[in-house]
Amino acid sequence: MHFQDLFYFSEAVKCGNISKAAKELQVSRQTITATLSRLEKEIGYPLLIRSKNGIELNDEGRMFFSRIDDFFQDGHQIMQDMVEYGSAYRLPLRIGVTAGVEYPVYRVLDRFREENERVDLSISFLSGKVSTTELLSGRYDVVISLYQKAISPRISVRTIAAYPACVAVHRENPLSNKKSIRFADLEGERILSFVHDLDSIKRIWERNFSFAPEADNYFYSEDAALILSMLAQNAGIVLCNPTSVIGEMQDIVLIPLAEDYSLPILMLVREDTLENEKYSHVLLTLEEALKTACGGTPA
Length: 299
What we know:
By secondary structure, this protein is α/β, with parallel strands linked by helices. The chain is 42% helix and 22% strand. It has ten helices and twelve strands. Strands 4-3-5-12-6 form a five-stranded mixed beta sheet. A five-stranded mixed beta sheet has the order 9-8-10-7-11, covered by helices on one side. Strands 1-2 form a two-stranded antiparallel sheet. Helix 1 (3-15) crosses helix 4 and helix 5 packs across helix 10. The longest helix is centred in the first third of the chain and has 30 residues, at 59-88.
């Protein structure tokens, strides 16, 4: 007696007709007929009453079918229990995303969640200023960020993409007429940022350029909408990458920097997360998907 024979018998009884059962199971009518006859022969007595209108159970058949039906119901419940058990033990992955990270990253994370059912992915948005602290505290396993701050040795930094920097300016700003902009051209301009605070941008600019912005010529806010609103009112300029959605704003022009300077998108991962074997494949898959979507030049 085979499992498939029991299944065919159960379906034939439920359909009440051999032809209907054969169609439902996508097998020949002869296969169903032979299976029913084989079962009755193995058991040693008839289970069905056959007529031109179909089949129905006799007393012995009803007892036999009841036991089979219980068997299949138990099997179905076992499968349900195992699915629920598995979902309770999905691998938690907490990702923080800082302001300014572009739309392709969000699409990758959404698709990653859909394609990895065994990963319990949660996504939160956070300030770049606290991203490292939040990562070290254990609140997040991964942070996707533009924020370049002093990195702890307990954090691994992966460069997802590094784009040549552009300057976003309003069309009414005289800089909008230039084909390229040098950093010297920005002296005296008001610099707007939702990525770097004044101390951070001073360190970056002093390391790379001949001047750093004064406090009066610099405005930082974690509220990206406020920064973009000020840009739209020609109240300053924004340093961004060429794929930024800022370039889609009305009256805003993206002009490349003449100097060789890149803006990276970073994937920050806690070392203890990397050392956990459960996460190794998941993080590698995520990193590759982000690099493919962002399409930047590796730093």
